[in-house]
Amino acid sequence: MASAAEQFASNLNFGAFSKATELKKRIWFTLGALIIYRLGTYIPLPGINPAVLQDIFKQNQGGVLGMFDMFAGGALSRMTIFALNIMPYISASIIMQLMTAVSPQLEALKKEGETGRKKINQYTRYGTVLIAALQAYGISAGIEGMSSSAGPAVAEPGLFFRFQVVVTLVGGTIFLMWLGEQITARGVGNGISLIIFSGIVANLPSALAGTLELGRTGALSTGFIIFLLLMSVGVIFFIVFVERAQRRILIQYPKRQRGNKMSGGESSHLPLKINTAGVIPPIFASSLLLMPITVIGFSAGTGPEWLTQMAAYLGRGQPVYLIIYVSMVVFFAFFYTAVVFNPADTADNLKKYGGFIPGIRPGNNTTEYLDWVLTRLTVVGAAYLAAIVLLPELLISQYSVPFYFGGTSLLIVVTVTMDTVAQVQSHLLAHQYEGLIKKSKLRGRR
Question: pLDDT (tens digit, 9 = 90+) per residue, 213-222?
Fold first, then answer.
């Protein structure tokens, strides 16, 4: 235990952190941006009665909308200006990546470098506005027909109410999109992931208190609560183990003779993660499910009969919902892995610099081998993601445990934490290198 603590302290390198003023500024900027985001999740939409919506969401907190409320940090149940959160931007990003894979024009644009990337980002922003507007209109039309014992949810329904809700929600999504980009550029990075992460973490204490309250009232037994907490710890350890796991492929470089000297002949490793897609598949799947389920969930009971039946099929723990959710997670695990890792490009780079895999010919054979290894790893990674999102779903649907103890939320929290720590460590290393360069320059002048 002592050695592990010493290793953790050495990784953080508190001495270097105290001198890294640039990193401090980035951390303070990130914290300030996340505080602004959390404040916005408590500003209600104009023209609605938040108390009525709270009662309605309490009655349906075990449904699919409750899961999306978890991603929104409680903003959806409070129906605030950030009710849509960053999900429309994620949906637009998915659509653009799919179109890039099938459209030759967008694929050529992607290969143009920085200029092409800016154009694709601009198209993604346009798509975000369109998707957010559609979702916002669905929400505004749905909550007009809602009511509880406290009265109707909307005091003055009509076109003006729908217009102001659409404008407010779209503006909130655009602001969060900009805020995430600022955190990525001026903060510690991973801006979009940190926004989702902060919403989940902010509600963890209330979720734990709610679970203990269920135990106090007898709705859950003490043994089950202990089992739930132990299961959460076990899931966290399992996530860390798999996310750290790698398949290292040996890369050999030939020896070269320059004059009387021999150079080269070194060997290195090409690390391939089991879960190359990371936390993206569950977020992508949840984001795409949000669009139809938002409209269905709010319109059920007030619209056609088939909408009510659809809402029942897509309820928490229902077979149709689980099949769609897991299928989308598996699909995006393979799709995003293909986006972030191209075996052909890797094989070409190895061939260009003289590297080769022992026993495998450079060129097409290397591409086929890397694709074969990556496919096998992705099968394991997709099964791991499916288990993470599926098993806790069944427990939550059976015992009404809060979403925050589910596998998806724990996966996001653990993965984003690990990525953020890695970003902080990279900034610390950059600061240390800058210090060494400055010292070498001063010694050179002497």
Answer: 878 887 778 8
The dotted CATH code for 11-202 is: 1.10.3370.10
- pTM score over 0.70: yes
The whole-angstrom separation of Cα 348 and Cα 27 is 39
Q: pLDDT tens, 287-336?
A: 777 666 666 655 555 556 766 677 666 666 678 878 888 898 999 899 88
Radius of gyration of the chain (CA): 25
Residue-by-residue DSSP string for 242-309: HHH-EEEEEEE--EEEETTEEEE--EEEEEEETTTTTTHHHHHHHHHHHHHHHHHHHHTTTS-HHHHH
Residue 311, C-beta contacts closer than 8 angstroms, at least 6 positions apart: 296, 297, 300
Q: What is the C-alpha to C-alpha distance for residues 64 and 215, in angstroms, rounded to an integer?
A: 24
Domain ranges of the chain: 11-202
Report d(CA 297, CA 318) in Å as an integer: 14
The answer on pLDDT for 8 being more than 80 is: no
Structure token pair of residue 36: 């602004």
Residue type, 79: M
